[in-house]
Amino acid sequence: MLGAENLLSRASLRWREDFNTSKSTACSGKTVGSSHRLMSICGSMTTSFASDDWVVDGLGQQTSIPGRIARATEVILIDMPLWMHYWLAAERQLAWATGKLEHAPGGITQMPPTQALFRTIWDVEQNWMPGIRNLCNEAQAQGKTVTYLVNVDDLDRFIRTI
Questions:
Q1: In angstroms, rounded to a whole number, what is the distance separating the alpha carbons of residues 77 and 66?
Q2: Which terminus in the chain has less CB density within 10 A, N or C?
Q3: pLDDT, tens only, 44-72
Q4: Among candidates 11, 5, 145, 139, which has minimal Cα distance to 67?
Q5: Residue 82: which of 129, 37, 122, 139 has the closest Cα?
Q6: d(Cα 100, Cα 88) in Å, to the nearest integer?
Q7: pTM of the prediction?
Q8: Are 147 and 76 in contact (CB under 8 A)?
Q9: How many other C-beta atoms are found inside a 10 Å radius of the C-beta of residue 52?
């Protein structure tokens, strides 16, 4: 069983308090803004990856992805169409704005600005996902278990199995 210290959430790794996307230099020891929170989380990432058991929910730092995939024993890639990510994010934003959101992502307490959230979704799809897909395909070709979840039905089925 994994300890809570080894479960890292995408929202806590990707977003700073001001909801700007974090830059890859943050984990290299350089300060990005005055985000001590981000720096300490990046330190936790390094410590957690050094142990034998860890799970990362989400993206984290772009520069950490190749190493994480290389070290992982199993990869689960949620790779739905861009419009579906927008749809799900819009539903969550609406639920949050109306006080009906049951579980905030990554334990954050403030709703991210919708424009910044949508810009990040676009950026990830355009600039991150091609490389992530290639890394996952390579990992699978090398014998790693890679699960591709490409629609909501896949996601629902997967959730029922865990």
A1: 13
A2: N
A3: 444 555 566 667 677 788 999 999 999 99
A4: 139
A5: 122
A6: 15
A7: 0.68
A8: yes
A9: 7
